[in-house]
Amino acid sequence: MADFVQASLRVIRASGHSPARIYTGLALHVAERACAIAPYFLAWFWLSRSAPFGPGVAGPWAWVEPAAWLVLLVLGQMLLSYLGQMNNFLGGYALTIAYRGRLIDHLQRLPLGVFGRQRIGHLASVMTDDVKRMEDVFTHLSAELLASISVPLLFAAMLVWIDWRLTLALLATWPLALAALNGANRFFLARGVRKQKLFLETSGLIVEFIGGLRTLRLFHRAQAWLQGLDARFAQIRQHSMGAEAWGGGSVLVYRIVLEGGLLLLLAVAGWLIAHATLTPLTWLLFVLVACKVLDPLLDAAAYLVELRALVQSETRLQQLLDEPVLKEGGRTEAPPGFAVSYRHVGFGYGAQRVLHDISFDVPEQGVTAIVGPSGAGKSTLLELLARFYDPQEGSIALGGVDLRALCSDTLYRQLGFVFQDVQLFDGSVLENVRVGREGASDGEVIEACRLACCDAFVQRLPDGYATRIGENGQQLSGGERQRLSIARALLKDAPVLLLDEATASVDAQSQHEIQQALSQLVAGRTVIMIAHRLPTIRHADQILVLDQGRIRERGTHASLLAQGGLYAQLWRAQEAMAAPLDGA
Question: Domain named ABC transporter: which ranges (predicted)?
Fold first, then answer.
């Protein structure tokens, strides 16, 4: 219970929204339940004053007052129930909207590299399912839980005043029932954590399976993936059954022990009647209200088990909020120049070091190429310049200004991107290219597409530039998607350009067209490019050869070939691979 209260308070603080309306709804809910139980005690009071239980009240109007009170209580209960639910629902929805907005705002301020470490399905589940569970807490469950606890307490307060012996007998087993419920809590939560972890991982696998189904079927791997998913589903089923066994079993034990209070009540009542110390009216009252006291406590067990699972949802959301955001610099004006400098940069993912003491300069409007074996750290160098992460050692400057001093919007206005993994959206060609510069006219978009050698294939599409290209541009070839990303970068017209193996995964014809488009794009810009095909960088101003996170060689194409080092080995290896293809 304490964990649930703390989790709820964390959500309230994180939302920044006033919980006053929720608290009002909870208070009204308790008042509504008080109105529901009041008739029992009013009846006992009136009967105790009436024959044959009491001295009796004379006159024909003796029952007018009780009837009036009952009508008022019924009307009051209806009004309080309506107002309580309205405040709970409206307050809960408003708070959850604010909380979801805080999460989205936090996501926007996270380093972009964080999203590369998370499965899309995992993030989607956390942002939808877990937030929905917290919404249910504030709109439904908190009120129900409070009612299931407040009603017995209200009853107990009145019953103790009437006969403390019977009240103690009725509730004597409750502490034992709670102990049984809490005893299984550790095992239930452990099973629940494993189940939810498997569920989130499986959600990510399903997203990957659907997204890669075409490739999997073409390579006859779809069945193997399905078998893997079936195995995950079997594990989820096993852990779900374990969680239900501990959760449901503990609730069953709780109910049996709690209902033992009824037996104890009968035993104590029998003893009191035998000793003539219990009045028939008092015994009648306890017979009528005993189940009214125990039923909410029985419901409370189910709510507590459910709320413990909801605490796990809040924990995952809090872990997301605990991810350190990208520290925004205060400088909003553009740097005075667009030369790039790396100074003693070091970086790693956890304990794995990726870059070691990297230092180099890229002159303004100069072209620097980065090559090296797979896993050498080439892409990480560009990601640091784009502030997907901040370097853990050293610094990176643009125009002499440390990137950390620039606000993100200012930095990204200076950078253009063309990556191997192109991200397009389910919209028209015009809409996808216009992402490069919001507000660009159709003519400006079409001109950028023409310069990027897109116009020919776009004209062949059913609706030309208005054609919807499907999710992530699935209706286009790899080369066509890449040229659209170049058109987007041309439209943005940023002074610094980052290219990450833009021609690595396309055929020779597409490579030629992309190279033509890139020649338009790099003109007059500061360029840092990662290249897989070395012939595409022969004319770079400088080439950096990266190996195991360190710069092993640097120079021009000719000087590096003359050195006969790693670059020369890579060049000869590519020539050897190309020779059979040329002969064919």
Answer: 340-573
**Using CA atoms, how far apart are residues 508 and 445, in angstroms rounded to an integer?**
26
C-beta of residue 346 within 8 angstroms of C-beta of residue 353: yes
- Mark out the alpha helices in 110-173 (DSSP H runs): 113-117, 120-125, 131-136, 142-171
Helix, strand, or coil here: 244?
helix
The pLDDT of residue 343 is above 80:
yes
159-163, 312-316, 392-396: which is most confident: 392-396
Sheet holding 550-555, edge to edge: 415-419, 496-500, 526-530, 367-371, 542-547, 550-555
Which helix H or strand E contains 550, and what residues bound it?
strand 550-555
Q: Residue 513: which of 431, 580, 449 has the closest Cα?
A: 449
- The whole-model pTM stands at 0.65
Tokens representing 64 are 């007018």
Distances in whole angstroms, Cα of residue 448 to Cα of each of 166, 412, 430, 493, 518: 86, 19, 10, 10, 12
Query: Is 486 in a helix, a strand, or coil?
Result: helix
Q: In whole angstroms, what separates CA 452 from the centre of its chain? A: 37
Contacts (Cβ under 8 Å, ≥6 apart) of 513: 453, 479, 483
More confident site: 515 or 259: 259
CA 478 to chain centre: 31
**Length of the chain (residues):** 584
Q: Treating both helix axes as pointing N-terminal to C-terminal, what angle do 64-109 and 280-322 enclose, rounded to 10 degrees?
A: 10
- Which of the pair, 193 or 136, is modelled with greater confidence? 136
CA dihedral 232, 235, 239, 240 (to 10 degrees): 60
- pLDDT higher than threshold 80 for residue 330: yes
Local structure of residue 111 (DSSP, 8 states): -
* Contact yes or no for 449/433 (Cβ under 8 A): yes
Confidence (pLDDT) at 317: 85
Residue type, 307: L
Q: What are the φ/ψ torsions at residue 395 (nearest 5 degrees)?
A: -155, 160
* Average pLDDT of the chain to the nearest whole number: 80
pLDDT for 347 equals 92
Residue 413 has pLDDT above 60, yes or no: yes
Spatial CB neighbours of 110, under 8 Å, sequence gap ≥ 6 = 323, 325, 326
CA-based radius of gyration for the chain? 35
Most confident segment among 50-54, 228-232, 278-282, 465-469: 465-469
Q: What distance in Å separates the CA atoms of residue 368 and residue 541, rounded to the nearest whole number? A: 6
Those residues whose C-beta lies under 8 Å from the C-beta of residue 32, and which sit 6 or more positions away, are 76, 77, 80, 81, 84
Residue 82 identity? Y
Question: Is the predicted pLDDT of residue 581 greater than 50, yes or no?
Answer: no
Contact 511, 353 (CB under 8 A): no
Domains of the chain with bracketed CATH: 2-322 (1.20.1560.10), 340-424+490-583 (3.40.50.300)
Instruction: For residue 462, give every residue at least 6 positions away whose Cβ sits within 8 Å of its Cβ, in sequence order, or none.
Output: none
Structure tokens at 99: 């909380």
Report residue 397: phi and psi, to 5°. Answer: -125, 145
User: Lowest-pLDDT range, 144-153, 264-273, 434-443?
Assistant: 144-153
CA 466/CA 452 separation, integer angstroms: 18
Q: Is the pLDDT of residue 190 over 60?
A: no
